């Protein structure tokens, strides 16, 4: 079996971590007799520089003709002041997700025993944390009507949070199914005390709940959820929420596993799934070989499981990462006293040694 992987390294540390995750896939391929073909495509700032557009048609075609997509990160200061529709974020990442129908972004987040002291949160608070945030990815503020116009005294600008019943139903179903495979607790996060779109969200989740009698559903306002995430994160199993809330809460939740550089993600629900670390291009550390490759390595583990049903292979990667952390190897973002500082490539080398 040969799996065709579209590889979109993108900008900043994206170009540093993606090759590391490919090394891990190659090692898995050799170990389990799976073959991969890797075809690179341009996306983001580098695509603007080389072609004038952040998401060339060729890249979109490549993605459509692949079995899975591996994305690094896009964006950076160099492209921040371009007209909105040409910026890497709005001009490439959002349309890529939309075009491929990737309406669900799955971000698993748990505490690693070995990293309990590396987190900014107390060990006792982190204990037992193992959750997954399911973020709606093709609706809400990101895709609603937006605009700007001149008014007296300056300008006004607006973004609108829009959700339809079918959009909420499909993400909610995916979250109910995910909870069914885990601890059967689903927490839907919204702002139904203020927002009309949240009221539709909550009604829809409640209506579907009747079809999933084994799942315990709770609702939480997003402001409270932000607080509960750092107060007692172990209370969460599956969290489902709209696009913007999920973006913010998942970066926050990444600190439960000590660093944003640990947070993997899968964008699913469409024709071909996309795997990407939850973090960005990290301009502050780009080009310094400091980036933590683990989020991307864990993202390819998700690829093996979700796209190819290679569960043993995915578990093998996760176990290798845990062993490396247990042995005390650390990139700068998770460094603590008494541990061994390694760079991006060395961290991957250690993972490969455990896989061998
Ligand atoms: P960021 O996620 O790039 O970085 C936030 C902080 O986390 C930085 O201090 C960075 O050094 C650190 N960090 C992130 N990933 C790390 C890793 N793997 N190892 C070690 N440290 C890591 O967010 P930002 O600085 O707000 O955004 C920078 C650029 O990335 C912006 O252009 C933004 O739009 C873009 N962005 C892209 C994506 C994506 O491509 N999916 C996601 C988020 C942000
Ligand atoms: C993410 C990023 C993106 C988002 C940006 C870069 C458009 O922050 O993948 O979390 O907000 O979805
Ligand atoms: Mn984000």
UniProtKB/TrEMBL annotation:
GO molecular function: 3-isopropylmalate dehydrogenase activity; metal ion binding
Subcellular location: Cytoplasm
Isopropylmalate dehydrogenase-like domain mapped to chain residues: 4-351
GO biological process: L-leucine biosynthetic process
Reaction equations catalysed: (2R,3S)-3-isopropylmalate + NAD(+) = 4-methyl-2-oxopentanoate + CO2 + NADH
Function: Catalyzes the oxidation of 3-carboxy-2-hydroxy-4-methylpentanoate (3-isopropylmalate) to 3-carboxy-4-methyl-2-oxopentanoate. The product decarboxylates to 4-methyl-2 oxopentanoate.
Family: Belongs to the isocitrate and isopropylmalate dehydrogenases family. LeuB type 1 subfamily.
Cofactor(s) essential for the protein: Mg(2+); Mn(2+)
PANTHER family: 3-ISOPROPYLMALATE DEHYDROGENASE (PTHR42979)
Spans traversing the lipid bilayer: none
UniProt KW Nucleotide-binding keyword: no
Pathway entry: Amino-acid biosynthesis; L-leucine biosynthesis; L-leucine from 3-methyl-2-oxobutanoate: step 3/4
CC per GO annotation: cytosol
Keywords recorded for this protein, A-Z: Amino-acid biosynthesis, Branched-chain amino acid biosynthesis, Cytoplasm, Leucine biosynthesis, Magnesium, Manganese, Metal-binding, NAD, Oxidoreductase
Sites annotated Important for catalysis: 142, 191
Name used for this protein in its record: 3-isopropylmalate dehydrogenase
NCBIfam families: leuB
Cofactor note: Binds 1 Mg(2+) or Mn(2+) ion per subunit.
HAMAP family: LeuB_type1
Entry binding sites for substrate: 97, 107, 135, 223
